[in-house]
Design brief:
Oligomer: single chain
Strand content: 25-35%
Structural class: alpha+beta
Number of helices: 36
Shape: elongated
Mean pLDDT: 79
Distance between the termini: 72 Å
Helix content: 25-40%
Largest sheet: 8 strands, mixed
Radius of gyration: 39 Å
Strand order of the largest sheet: 15-16-17-18-22-21-20-19
């Protein structure tokens, strides 16, 4: 009954939104004709649309049309929620056309509302029935909005004035007018962001939320305002969204302006004019005082509709308006007092005159708080107390659920009370699907002042308010903080209220409630807000001298390193902390405690420990030579032995009067040539691949104190000398106008490691390392071949790769110190840019980004901006094998980054890095400092110099994975390592001028197989078996009866086993194993084949052997099956003696004839291009085998496509020469055969192939055709679409034309099989 009375007495003349009024006008005739208004009067009273008096007045009307007009007039003065209640009444009608009309009205309004909501994102409502339009003020804002809309460069508007002067309302009205009525900013819309008086951390949280709403990914790696500003700015530019309008409301902190510069078109409201901030604002001062007419209009809109007291020309009214300073907020409060008589108005005047101005804002002198007090006094005592409690909330939108919980009343009761407060303009209440209210900042300021300042201070009153809220939360949910339903407030601000309540117990309780944190993470969709909460709580505990406050820092550290994982909807934080927090006692114990409580609902597991093999394996050098005579003879360079004997270029007595440049034959140690440099100090050297041309850079000083300048001066010049030692001639760089380049200052010169068409190519790097040029040597001239690259930052490294056909360069996207850390820690982006350029086409073939700084968390490495814990990228090596990868060296951390997705450009994402980055083993990553990393030219070996422990590790690499290693020890500081091109000898030289050679394929080397870490499962948490220490040799996965099956070849304590996993709908897979009698190198399983194929390779008396074995019934869980009963040797391949290595590359199983297909590589000794393809086909039914040996020797090959019947491959048969071959795979009786082949040269050609494969193997409809796609100079001119269609037909021609838009690929392959087709490039991507 109380609710019904309040509903009928608390109508506020709010008025419908314009778009709802338009819908009513469009359907006016239908509404008036179809609806029997007399029949809906009672329900309209119940729904609160009509008051009793209004319903009686309408019921007395005898004319149906007049009744309809009056009803709609009343409806137009109501709120939007009343309109939807009206539609609901119509939809419940017994008359079909009335029901349809109700649905139509609601749909029309929702459609328009959604369009406006998409354009005006988060813009506050400013209903015409509640707010007046201050025409001159609004027209000024509208005019400037139109100007910046039309401007190409954008613009920034600053609307400034005292609080309560109506800035926000005027801005919102003006934006709606320009966008929805005059169609400005329609293409991009706007974003409204409330700023207020907030900290930097709170601003960062707001901007991260904005970034997420805009659709920006990878915000988890951003932890500073500078970064988020740069990230949003780059996103808006990349997406062409720089024309989007941003509204920043109530900016208080002038420093915050520099972090919202991403908004090229913006409007800011503020109490301050921000004079002298350096930003080019269009300043619009707020019209702070209302005119008398405007003030009277506001009072009319805010007072009850039944009050007929005359306002126009009334001296009492005008006196009150003046005493309120004619401020919009104060006048609105006065209107809400519902003053009905002269006595009421006189009372207000008396109160304002006689009452002391106890509450005044610092911005102006008008007694605004006294108007608040007058309005609040009109409330009942109970409601006054409830209203004062609202001061505990933050200055944000507060949900009805949160308020009802605070007041301890039913939500419906709370709604009625809030409507009363809204009718008095004490707050703005919005009904609908998510009812909420907003209090003006000044009202919150007033409510936070103690009711009796003499009895308590403001700080004490704040503690009391927040303690009351915390106690209510705790009692309501019995201290289980995660059980509170989401209300858009609780999880966001619980920690803040606990801190303000100085409730140490609650703070610590929340900090250990990982379930509450899990809910908060998923609601916020960011780790940042939770980390800010924890850090503020830590500060509070520290200030209160709580001993264990530091332990929570480890929790923040974990969260920041694992954000992308934690934000996945399926992730359980308790499980994550069991996994990655196992080395932190209190986190492990708390997570385990929660896991045990919830194990009836979820299954959990945890890692107990890890083991590493400690066996030491070292290798001695096969040769040792002396290079140079002093410690300064540290610069050496090597020629390429493919062009003659290996030559070493170095110095002797560098920096002394008898300094010489020496060219030495490595094998004989004889001096081939020597030069006395023009200056005493040689800083760098380089040599051509044939050892004929040398380059050296001298320090241009004759000062004998050169050593000091060598290490400490940056003022030296970079002048290079180029010398032809065969003709005893100095070579000179020539300009494009054929004039000699007199200033040969470069920071670096590098010769291409191979000779292209008898031309020696070199690259020069400018002194500032921002420009790269390519040159070729013609006689005694060095000519620029019009190839150059310019970048914005200093290139860290520029290297020749892929046998000299490509150039790799990379740079940090910030100014860095020598250690790689940014010079400006407040203005940088954690990115390094890597580019690979093709020498022949001079096109950037690949461009990608990797993190500049990473940090280790658990066993994973993640991007980080933390200088203290993070390590900076020092070097990059690129391997372009069948499975391309990068070798990333982060000083004391490193590993392989698999480039599995060629199109992916952003590898600095945490999720991508976790998936694709494979760190070096723990025993060399731990406390190591990597001095130098080198990769062999066949990309099968990687050497790592670990300086601080003076060791060198050499790893074997297969399929972009580290397989095994050997280790060298040395006694002195090592300089660099170099693999001699064309063979697998490794050269190391140290600070004593000693050069060591290691033969890494020697017979007596003991390569140690790499080990994976064992995971122990806690039986209390997870029902699983114990994982023992083991070496995982190979793995394979397939599906059997739609269940995923995995097999691992492992070695445990000299015992070889095959572990089998059945992955079912459980937390842990079913696991069992089979014992093997010998070690195998590879294993393969196939869909719906109940056998494992295992392959063993070994060397015996200089002969290479491959044994292919079949293990049947491997899914049998009984471990007592003996291998000799179930394993059969299918094939024993004995390679000829000239073969020094065999590798298995591909495998397929053909179910139709039960045939196994194995693709292998053979490497022949002592020839330049030594790789040959071997295809083995084996019938599993009769074990008959055929072996096909290809007739092509090549440097490298790539499998473009393979199925059970066909193989398509590209071979690099010579430098810049390739072949495309198509094979029809045989069986046990029919030999594999080549059915199509095409040879071609790479330079200046681009080709497209179409290969049609038969659906039915009994049909011979294989087709193979190709066409050249023309290329001119360095610019690509593709064949026209018409020509392509003429040659290929409409469908294929259009496809090739479309693919051609994506860039200059060397080859395109369209492979068609029936209705299915795929288009790939030459790398099978």
């Amino acid at each position: 009954s109380k609710i019904g009375v309040l509903i009928t007495t608390l109508h506020v003349n709010m008025g419908l939104s314009k778009y709802i009024l338009n819908v009513i006008e469009q359907n006016y005739a239908t509404i008036n004709n179809d609806i029997a208004f007399k029949g809906i009067l009672v329900e309209s009273i119940v729904k609160g649309i009509l008051s009793d008096n209004e319903a009686i007045e309408l019921g007395e009307s005898t004319n149906k049309e007049i009744m309809g007009v009056k009803f709609l007039k009343i409806l137009k003065s109501r709120s939007d929620n009343d309109f939807f209640q009206f539609c609901k009444i119509l939809k419940n009608s017994d008359v079909a056309n009335v029901r349809n009309l109700g649905q139509k009205l609601e749909d029309d309004v929702n459609k328009i509302s959604q369009t406006e909501e998409n354009l005006l994102q988060d813009l506050p409502e400013t209903s015409d029935s509640t707010y007046i339009l201050r025409k001159q003020f609004n027209d000024t804002i509208c005019y400037q909005l139109k100007q910046i809309n039309q401007s190409r460069t954008g613009g920034k508007i600053l609307v400034h004035g005292m609080p309560g002067s109506g800035k926000t309302v005027a801005v919102c009205q003006s934006i709606r007018q320009t966008m929805m009525q005059e169609n400005y900013f329609q293409s991009y819309g706007c974003y409204w962001i409330k700023i207020g008086n907030i900290s930097d951390e709170e601003l960062l949280s707001i901007l991260r939320g904005l970034a997420i709403n805009l659709g920006i990914e990878n915000t988890e790696v951003i932890h500073s305002l500078v970064e988020i500003n740069a990230k949003i700015n780059r996103y808006l530019q990349d997406k062409h969204l720089i024309k989007k309008l941003f509204i920043f409301d109530d900016v208080r902190n002038q420093d915050h302006l520099k972090y919202i510069t991403f908004a090229k078109k913006s409007i800011i409201t503020s109490r301050s004019n921000f004079v002298g901030n350096g930003l080019n604002f269009i300043r619009i001062p707020a019209v702070e005082r209302l005119t008398e007419d405007e003030a009277i209009q506001i009072i009319q809109k805010r007072r009850h509709k039944d009050i007929n007291y005359n306002l126009q020309g009334n001296k009492l009214v005008l006196d009150v308006i003046e005493r309120c300073g004619r401020l919009p907020l104060a006048i609105a409060i006065i209107g809400g007092l519902n003053l009905k008589s002269d006595e009421d108005w006189k009372h207000v005047i008396e109160v304002i005159i006689t009452e002391e101005a106890k509450f005044k804002t610092c911005e102006y002198q008008d007694n605004l708080f006294e108007t608040f007090k007058l309005s609040i006094k009109q409330l009942s005592q109970e409601h006054r107390e409830l209203f004062h409690l609202l001061g505990v909330f933050k200055a944000v939108k507060i949900s009805l659920k949160s308020i009802a919980l605070l007041w301890q009343v039913h939500e419906l009761d709370a709604k009625v009370i809030l409507e009363e407060f809204g009718s008095k303009s004490l707050l703005t209440f919005t009904d609908g699907n998510s009812p909420s209210c907003v209090l003006h900042d000044l009202m919150i300021e007033y409510l936070r002042k103690p009711l009796d300042p003499q009895q308590s201070s403001q700080q004490q009153y704040s503690i009391v308010l927040n303690k009351k809220l915390i106690d209510i939360y705790s009692n309501q949910y019995h201290g289980n903080w995660s059980t509170n339903p989401h209300d858009d407030y609780y999880y966001q601000y619980l920690m803040s209220h606990a801190i303000q309540a100085t409730d140490i117990y609650t703070i610590q309780d929340i900090l250990s409630d990982f379930k509450w944190m899990n809910v908060k993470l998923h609601l916020d969709n960011t780790i940042y807000d939770l980390c800010v909460d924890i850090e503020k709580a830590m500060d509070h505990l520290k200030d209160n001298e709580i001993e264990n406050w530091q332990q929570y820092q480890k929790l923040v550290h974990i969260f920041k390193r694992h954000e992308s994982n934690l934000l996945m909807k399926s992730v359980d934080l308790v499980q994550v902390l069991l996994t990655i927090g196992h080395d932190i006692d209190w986190i492990r114990e708390r997570a385990l405690e929660l896991a045990k409580k919830m194990k009836s609902v979820n299954k959990y597991w945890k890692i107990k420990g890890t083991n590493y093999d400690k066996v030491e394996i070292t290798v001695e050098p096969s040769k040792r030579k002396r290079i140079g005579k002093t410690v300064s003879d540290c610069n050496i360079a090597f020629s390429n032995p493919r062009y003659g004997n290996l030559r070493i270029l170095g110095t002797e007595n560098n920096g002394k009067d008898n300094c010489r440049i020496m060219i030495t034959d490595y094998e004989t140690s004889k001096i081939v040539h020597q030069i006395t440099p023009p200056k005493l100090s040689v800083r760098n050297v380089s040599i051509s691949p044939d050892g004929r041309i040398i380059a050296y850079m001298c320090d241009c000083t004759d000062d004998n104190s050169w050593l000091s300048k060598w290490y400490w001066s940056n003022n030296y010049t970079h002048n290079w000398n180029i010398y032809d030692i065969h003709n005893n001639k100095e070579l000179h760089f020539m300009l494009d106008n054929h004039q000699k380049l007199h200033n040969q200052e470069f920071d670096e010169i590098k010769f291409c490691p191979v000779i292209h068409d008898d031309d020696i190519i070199l690259i020069t790097v400018s002194k500032n390392r921002k420009e790269l040029k390519v040159w070729e040597i013609d006689g005694n001239k060095i000519l620029h071949i019009n190839n150059q690259i310019s970048i914005d930052y200093n290139a860290v490294s520029i290297e020749w790769i892929h046998y000299g056909s490509k150039i790799l360069l990379w740079w940090r996207k910030y100014d860095a110190w020598d250690n790689g850390y940014p010079q400006n820690r407040n203005n940088w982006i954690n990115e390094c840019q890597l580019q690979i350029w093709n020498l022949q086409s001079w096109q950037c073939q690949q461009s990608l980004q990797v993190p500049a700084i990473i940090v280790k968390e658990g066993k994973q490495y993640l991007p980080s901006t933390d200088k203290n814990d993070g390590v900076a990228l020092a070097s990059i090596n690129y391997c372009s094998s069948n499975n391309p990868f990068l070798v990333l060296n982060y000083n004391n951390k490193g590993g392989l980054l698999k480039l599995e997705n060629y199109e992916l450009k952003f590898w600095n994402d945490e999720q991508v890095l976790k998936k694709s980055f494979y760190p070096f083993p723990e025993y060399i990553n731990k406390e190591s400092i990597y001095h130098h990393i080198a990769v062999s030219d066949d990309q099968h070996y990687i050497s790592i110099i670990v300086e601080n422990i003076r060791e060198v590790y050499v790893f074997k690499v297969e399929n972009a994975q580290l397989q095994s290693y050997i280790k060298f020890k040395f006694s002195n500081i090592c300089g660099e390592s170099v693999f001699i091109p064309g063979n697998n000898r490794l050269l190391l030289y140290d600070c004593t001028n000693s050069l060591y050679e290691y033969d890494i394929i020697g017979k007596n080397l003991q390569w140690k197989i790499l080990k994976d870490d064992g995971n122990d499962y806690d039986d209390e948490v997870c029902q699983g078996t114990l994982w023992q220490d083991k070496s995982i040799i190979d793995i394979s996965y397939a599906y059997m009866s739609n269940n995923l099956i995995g097999v691992h070849l492992i070695k445990k304590c000299e015992i070889y086993e095959l572990e089998v996993y059945k992955f079912q709908q459980q937390s842990c897979p079913i696991q069992f194993h089979h014992t093997l009698d010998q070690l195998y190198d590879k294993c393969f399983i196939y869909d719906d084949l109940s056998s494992v194929i295992m392959i063993r390779s070994y060397q015996d008396d200089d002969e290479q052997h491959i044994i292919i074995t079949q293990l049947e019934n491997y899914l049998d869980q009984n471990d007592d099956i003996q291998q000799e009963d179930s394993a059969f040797v299918l094939c024993h391949y004995n390679a000829p003696q000239h073969i020094w290595r065999i590798e298995v590359k591909e495998s397929r199983y053909r179910n139709v004839d039960d045939t196994l297909i194995i693709i292998m590589e053979e490497y022949t000794k002592d020839i330049k291009y030594n790789l040959q393809l071997i295809i083995v086909t084996i019938s599993l039914s009769n074990r008959q085998t055929t072996i096909y040996q290809d007739d092509i020797y090549c440097k490298d090959w790539c499998c473009i496509y393979m199925d059970e019947h066909y193989l398509i491959a590209v071979f690099e048969t010579d430098f810049l020469e390739r072949s495309v071959k198509c094979y029809q795979l045989g069986d046990s009786t029919t030999q594999t055969q080549t059915i199509a082949m095409e040879k071609y040269l790479l330079p200046r050609r681009r080709r497209a192939y179409k290969i049609t494969l038969p659906i039915n193997q009994s049909r011979n409809d294989f087709q193979f055709k190709f066409v050249l796609l023309k290329k001119i100079a360095t610019d690509y001119a593709f064949i026209s679409k018409e020509k392509l269609i003429e040659y290929w037909g409409q469908k294929d021609g259009s496809l090739f034309d479309k693919i051609g838009e994506f860039g200059p690929l060397s080859e395109l392959f369209m492979i068609e099989k029936g209705e299915n087709f795929v288009i790939l490039n030459e790398d099978a991507e």
